[in-house]
């Protein structure tokens, strides 16, 4: 699949709403002939004589046969999503009607759109930059408040504008240094090395912050990985089920019930958490259980958050101290969650309140105090930084380009430190410009575009 310019001249068509039966379906056309093609099969007003951003009632007919009564919305170039002529036909939402309409248009000369082709045309026609186009895809797939906000802010400009501005200033330096190169032997300096260093250091700070935000961005997109860990029978699976409100994991009074990990997503306060129920941690001679235990330990290392769960009726302070110590050394944020408060001995509860006042007491079995637990989880992951509209990188492609940008910026700095010749500095600047340009789409290749838009759905 390649995107040559000639293809932009044809008129594409696709179902814009979801597949399946619905009250209404919207079929979208984009391209030079979008309006004239529609006019051939639409019976009502002459669409060619209507203004942009108007809606018209009529019928779609295949010869004498009426396919449906429809509403047609007109967007005349360049005042449309793709900046081409766009027609949106709202039909009744039956798959029979949709297929008849699509077939009719294809017979008349429209071409079925490829995945993401509408958005790609919008990009190619300068509607937005590449990072914004990718955000359209993220927005469609966003399923929580936070991922929605990340995509929305990116689509509306996000970090692209900041990068574009800094890149423009770097271009200025590049051209100054190229100019110095032109003067060859003469010892002139158009670009102040100190100013260049200041700009590069500033760029580096921005780039590094964006790189750091990727972890957070990833978490927002895929859910905060949260491991429930503890001894066998602590009630980990019971807690997972209670949080999910379904009997997902098997619960039993036999220690060692869960052997593989079980995970599911839970939305807490607009943030998706990926809860992972694990095999209880203990020394075991059972081979399968032992594999489960080592998997638990792996999962704990990569978690963003650990719920350390223990049974108040089956644990003493010595053991809790030892576990807490281990967890502190691991460096992953964790919460101390004391379970089975419904049958706890008050001695241990009092000891805990004194020695570990941040313990949360719950009963997973009776679903007691789970709201408090959720509130504490939210506080611990602290996504406020994100909510205030800070820029978050969620896209692997941007992340890759940012990492490469960082390397080449560091090369510029070490070049300046070592007083390398102008041509080397110029080369490193050009490399930085290239990687920065990759993010916003000022530098693209066919392969890159193809890759990005392939991940879109058809009709988007
Ligand atoms: N009384 C009481 N019993 C509970 C509570 N939570 C869990 N249990 C019981 O504790 C037993 C063990 O629960 P599980 O959820 O299977 O424990 P687990 O930590 O997943 O155990 P493994 O999978 O073996 O590691 C079951 O009999 C549960 O019904 C609670 O809050 N109160
Ligand atoms: Mg279990």
TrEMBL record:
Binds 1 potassium ion per subunit. The keyword Magnesium applies. Signal peptide: none annotated. Its cofactor is K(+). Mg(2+) binds at residues 237, 258. GO terms for molecular function: GTP binding; GTPase activity; identical protein binding; metal ion binding. The keyword Transmembrane helix does not apply. Pfam families: MMR_HSR1 (PF01926), MnmE_helical (PF12631), TrmE_N (PF10396). GO terms for biological process: tRNA methylation; tRNA wobble uridine modification. CDD domains: trmE, TrmE_N. Its EC number is 3.6.-.-. It is an enzyme of class 3 (hydrolase). It comes from the Bacteria. It is found in: Cytoplasm. InterPro entries: G_TrmE, GTP-bd, GTP-bd_TrmE_N, GTPase_MnmE, MnmE_dom2, MnmE_helical, P-loop_NTPase, Small_GTP-bd. K(+) binds at residues 233, 252, 254, 257. GTP binds at residues 233-238, 252-258, 277-280. Residues 223-382 form the TrmE-type G domain. Keywords: Cytoplasm, GTP-binding, Hydrolase, Magnesium, Metal-binding, Nucleotide-binding, Potassium, tRNA processing. Its main location: cytoplasm. Belongs to the TRAFAC class TrmE-Era-EngA-EngB-Septin-like GTPase superfamily. TrmE GTPase family. Exhibits a very high intrinsic GTPase hydrolysis rate. Involved in the addition of a carboxymethylaminomethyl (cmnm) group at the wobble position (U34) of certain tRNAs, forming tRNA-cmnm(5)s(2)U34. Homodimer. Heterotetramer of two MnmE and two MnmG subunits. This is tRNA modification GTPase MnmE. It comes from Algoriphagus chordae. The lineage of its organism: Bacteria, Pseudomonadati, Bacteroidota, Cytophagia, Cytophagales.
């Amino acid at each position: 699949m390649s995107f040559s310019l000639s293809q932009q001249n044809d008129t594409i068509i696709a179902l814009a709403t979801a597949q399946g039966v619905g009250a209404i379906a919207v079929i979208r056309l984009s391209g030079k002939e979008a309006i004239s093609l529609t006019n051939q099969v639409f019976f009502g007003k002459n669409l060619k004589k209507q203004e942009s951003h108007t809606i018209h009632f009529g019928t779609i007919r295949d010869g004498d046969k009426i396919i449906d009564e429809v509403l047609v919305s007109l967007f005349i170039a360049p005042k449309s999503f793709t900046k081409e002529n766009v027609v949106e036909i709202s039909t009744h939402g039956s798959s029979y009607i949709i297929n008849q309409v699509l077939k009719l248009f294809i017979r008349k000369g429209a071409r079925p759109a490829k995945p993401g082709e509408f958005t790609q045309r919008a990009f190619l026609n300068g509607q937005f930059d590449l990072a914004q186009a990718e955000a359209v895809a993220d927005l469609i797939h966003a399923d929580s408040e936070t991922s929605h906000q990340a995509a929305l802010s990116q689509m509306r400009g996000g970090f692209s504008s900041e990068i574009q501005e800094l890149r423009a200033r770097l271009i200025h330096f590049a051209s100054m240094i190229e100019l110095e190169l032109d003067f060859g032997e003469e010892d002139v300096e158009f670009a102040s090395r100190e100013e260049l260093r200041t700009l590069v250091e500033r760029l580096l700070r921005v780039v590094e912050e964006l790189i750091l935000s990727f972890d957070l961005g990833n978490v927002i997109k895929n859910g905060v990985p949260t491991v429930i860990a503890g001894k066998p029978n602590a009630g980990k699976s019971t807690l997972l089920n209670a949080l999910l409100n379904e009997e997902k994991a098997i619960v039993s009074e036999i220690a060692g019930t869960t052997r593989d990990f079980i995970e599911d997503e839970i939305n807490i306060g607009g943030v998706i958490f990926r809860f992972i129920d694990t095999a209880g941690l203990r020394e075991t001679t059972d081979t399968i259980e032992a594999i489960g235990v080592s998997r638990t330990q792996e999962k704990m290392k990569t978690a963003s958050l650990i719920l350390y769960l223990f049974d108040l009726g089956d644990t003493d302070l010595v053991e809790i101290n030892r576990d807490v110590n281990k967890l502190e050394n691991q460096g992953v944020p964790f919460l101390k969650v004391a379970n089975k408060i419904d049958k706890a001995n008050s001695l241990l509860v009092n000891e805990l309140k004194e020695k570990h006042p941040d313990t949360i007491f719950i009963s997973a079995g009776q679903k007691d105090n789970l709201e408090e637990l959720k509130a504490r989880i939210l506080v611990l992951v602290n996504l406020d930084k994100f909510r205030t509209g800070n820029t978050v990188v969620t896209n692997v492609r941007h992340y890759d380009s940012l990492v490469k940008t960082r390397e080449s910026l560091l090369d510029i700095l070490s070049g300046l430190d070592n007083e390398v010749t102008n041509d080397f500095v110029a080369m490193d600047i050009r490399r930085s410009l290239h990687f920065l340009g990759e993010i916003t789409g000022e530098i693209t290749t066919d392969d890159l575009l193809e890759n990005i838009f392939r991940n879109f759905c058809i009709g988007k």
